[in-house]
């Protein structure tokens, strides 16, 4: 299974917004620049997160992106589902029913063992993402800082004047 790169963008963007002071907003362009992503592509991903009610977009001079709800109330699964079009990540096409050696349809009343295992795996990774909140990510990021990144981020934010709404 491979998720699109917009999932990575969305998770990092939401984490960055969750780490901002309450009331702070960042323009989408600044957030894209911070992550080294083309703003046009990044903007489309952010629009999906806005539509899902995970982040909000405030228009105007002091506008920008902010979390729409507390980080504790946002699961990683919500972010993934908002950004991916897939309902499930394994799609069984019942190939066992095709070909020259396939049995009569009456013999295929239950999913095959492959489909059962794949659906179980899908449910398990969704469970992990559903039980991990953005606040959990924020806490682990704060507990394991990368040397120099915090200071560089604070300096960059101050230089660009990207933080708005405070």
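-> sequence recovered:
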């Amino acid at each position: 299974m491979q998720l699109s790169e917009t999932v990575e963008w969305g998770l990092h963007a939401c984490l960055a917004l969750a780490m901002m002071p309450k009331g702070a907003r960042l323009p989408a362009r600044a957030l894209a620049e911070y992550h080294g992503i083309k703003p046009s592509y990044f903007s489309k991903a952010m629009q999906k997160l806005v539509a899902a009610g995970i982040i909000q977009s405030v228009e105007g001079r002091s506008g920008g992106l902010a979390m729409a709800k507390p980080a504790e109330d946002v699961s990683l699964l919500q972010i993934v589902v908002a950004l991916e079009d897939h309902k499930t990540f394994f799609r069984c096409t019942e190939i066992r029913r095709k070909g020259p050696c396939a049995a009569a349809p009456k013999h295929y009343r239950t999913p095959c063992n492959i489909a059962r295992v794949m659906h179980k795996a899908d449910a398990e990774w969704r469970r992990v993402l559903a039980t991990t909140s953005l606040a959990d990510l924020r806490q682990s990021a704060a507990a394991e800082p990368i040397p120099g990144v915090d200071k560089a981020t604070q300096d960059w934010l101050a230089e660009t004047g990207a933080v708005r709404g405070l």
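The chain has seven helices and two strands.
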